[in-house]
Amino acid sequence: TKTSLLTTTSYPWMTGFATKDMGFKYGGFAKRGIDKVLALYDKNWDTLGPITLHLDDTSSDPVRVAKKVRKYYFQDDPITKEKRDEITDMYTNFFVTNPMILDIRNNFGKTFVYQFDHLGEYTRAYGYGLPKNESFGSAVHADDLIYLFPLNYDFPDLKFNEIDLNISKLMVKLWVNFATHGNPTPKKISQDPQNPDDEKIKWKPFGFRSKYLLIETNKLSMKRDLLKDQYKFWTSLKVTDKLRSNFDSEGFLINKPPTDFGKKDIC
User: Fold this and answer.
1) Which long-range CB contacts under 8 A does 222-230 form with residues at least 24 apart?
2) Which of 34, 165, 219, 257 fits a disulfide with 160 by CB distance 3.0 to 4.6 angstroms?
3) Residue-by-residue DSSP string for 88-104
4) At 126, which CATH number?
């Protein structure tokens, strides 16, 4: 039917990301030998850049887009392990935050957005391949779930220390409030997860100022203009114009998608 592919919604929604969400991509490189993999990317970016970002499948000009991406994140520097944060941010912005913000802008209901920055005693970074002697210094993909669900298959001996337990209590409270009231903070809560008696902050919807809740170990704070510069950069590129050409103005498929979609990613 004509409503089978919805492009906008008006339901309350809560969504977010970890500060170093796509750290598992870097972890995958580390498993294969970080210096060797990054040397290949550095030398062959015009070929491998479009592949690792799936641009061959979605962009009408994948090489040009990949070159702009490299310039934005690495300037004229070589791609080495010293650029670990830039590599992680590139993948996080492309695969997680940019699509998330695009979806938020198409939701006319109240949307509550968070950035999870707490790095506790337990993290999934090492399961993704990060060497034990390294740390992203922040949360990676699905680290927020550690504080919401008993992930026994990842952490069979999980036992929270006091700091992590307070984060877990906060997260569960926010999620239960949202499920119950459609609002994670129907009443003000503490701005310090380690001091729950200090009730001074409310989680405000995303709105026109792109507001979001930053969740840190010892502080909750409302921020605005979520990744404004990065979002502006990515939306200025022809990243998905080829993909969009497969659909008509009402969202119906015109051409079959590429049969090799996603299979070329060597990472």
Assistant:
1) 223/115, 226/97, 226/101, 226/113, 226/115, 227/93, 227/97, 227/98, 227/101, 230/89, 230/93, 230/97, 230/98
2) 165
3) HHHHHIIIIIHHHHHHH
4) 3.40.50.1820
Domain count, the chain: 1
Strand pairing report for 111-116 and 212-215: parallel
Range of the domain at 182: 13-244
Going by C-alpha positions, the residue among 191, 147, 194 that lies closest to residue 168 is 147
Rounded distance between C-alpha atoms, residue 41 and residue 223, angstroms: 35
pTM of this structure: 0.87
Alpha-carbon distance of 63 to 70, in angstroms, equals 11
Q: What is the rounded average pLDDT of the residues 231-246?
A: 86
212 within 8 A of 223, measured Cβ to Cβ: yes
Considering the domain boundaries, does residue 169 fall inside one?
Answer: yes
Beta-bridge partner residues of 189: 201
**Cα 106 from Cα 108, distance rounded (Å):** 6
Lowest-confidence range among 22-26, 88-92, 102-106? 102-106
Distances (CA, A) of 44 to 35, 154, 222: 14, 36, 41
Length of the chain counted residue by residue:
267
CB 25 within 8 A of CB 238: no
Q: Which residue has the higher pLDDT, 224 or 251?
A: 224
Structural domain includes residue 178: yes
Residue 4 lies in a domain: no
Classify strands 111-116 and 199-201 as parallel, antiparallel or unpaired: unpaired
CA 105 to chain centre: 16
Least confident of 11-25, 74-88, 118-132: 118-132
264: left (phi over 0), alpha (psi -120 to 50) or beta: alpha
- As a whole number of angstroms, the distance between CA 229 and CA 208 comes to 16
